[in-house]
Amino acid sequence: MTKTIELKGSYEATEAYSLDPLVGVRNNVISPIECAYLIELAKPHIKRAGVVLDEGYKESEGRTGSNHWLKYDEDDVVRSVGKRISDIVGLPLEYAESMQIIHYGPEQEYRPHFDAFNLSLPKGQRAAKWGGQRLVTALVYLNTVEAGGATQFPKLGITVPALPGRMVIFHNTTHDISGPHPLSLHAGMPVEAGEKWAFNMWFRLQDTTTEFEFGGVLPTVAIGQSNRPANPQVAPANDPQTSLASPQNAEPTTPTRSEKVSSSGITIRANRADTLWQRAPNNLRAA
Description:
Helix content: 10-25%
CATH class: Mainly Beta
CATH architecture: Sandwich
CATH topology: Jelly Rolls
Distance between the termini: 52 Å
Mean pLDDT: 81
Low-confidence stretches: 226-257, 270-287
Structural class: alpha+beta
Strand content: 25-35%
Radius of gyration: 18 Å
């Protein structure tokens, strides 16, 4: 019998900008004091970040920022923040990888990539050995970036500027968890001025101390219906703007059709997200 994992269909106090995959934004998840504390805690230990490659976890031209990992038993603040995010996501804190503090200086970026693993490939299976697939990403910004540094979903036409305490939460996989949802492709845009601090928490299929068994049928993911918006509508599957591109060749796109920009600075390309925009509250619409 196939095991089913249920993820939330919406998140408390979070505006959804896409439903498939779910991409939501929530402001003021953590306080300015907590933002500053996490930056200072990680700053002495920050070093060049890497990515998962065939030969292991290595540096890559596609990711030029730095990072540091914080365990949730590091201190009470890290534990409290981690538990708060876990409660919002609706998955146990034990399912989350360590909190990754990330830093980008001028011209540094993270080019378009997926957070989930392709479980049909050996490198994906190695990466998923402890805890299984990455199901949900929670990304929280820790400072205001002078220019640049937004998070962009190029296949969805969504761009989210970095503001301290703001969280972007999104689902990573196809329903059978075998690989990334093709529209979850995202990028950390280059920092044009100043610096960018943030942290992310990747929530896995199970406890990260538990070895994932690859034999048999993979679990599937179901999205909770009780807390989804009523009668949601999304762009049709054959929308040409959702055509797939490999992560190696994909680049953030400049929208060629009309855009809407919310009062929070979040850009939605109208050809993909019109129906979501129509049901957004007035305080998120352009003036």
